[in-house]
Write a structure and sequence with these properties.
Length: 107
């Protein structure tokens, strides 16, 4: 995944959050909402979660399970991704509009 297109990510095991400074024009409230959602997801499911922009500006959720964790549940992770997409539908629409307005869909 192109690092420049990664918006933010969180890792539950390392208890770390990353926000790409390239997208610093986003309002602080949006940044805080993203951080809260991703940190909770990573703590609950484990592994690493990233939100990145596809070339068309669509926000994509990517989840990477922890290496060697036999208790990681792909089904639960998929259900949590679906829940996150439903609950944050408006946020994802706003992120796409932001990306297209500031970057025109090109990186």
């Amino acid at each position: 995944m192109n690092e420049e297109m990664v918006l933010c990510g969180a890792n539950g095991d390392a208890e770390k959050y990353y926000f790409n400074p390239r997208y610093d024009q986003l309002p602080d409230t949006v940044k805080q909402e993203l951080q809260a959602a991703l940190v909770l997801f990573a703590e609950h499911v484990g592994g690493t979660i990233l939100i990145a922009f596809a070339e068309d500006g669509e926000p994509q959720i990517k989840v990477y399970p922890p290496a060697g964790d036999i208790y990681y549940d792909d089904i639960e992770a998929g259900m949590e991704i679906s829940r996150l997409q439903r609950e944050k539908e408006m946020l994802f629409l706003q992120l796409k509009a932001f990306y297209l307005a500031f970057f025109g869909g090109a990186v």
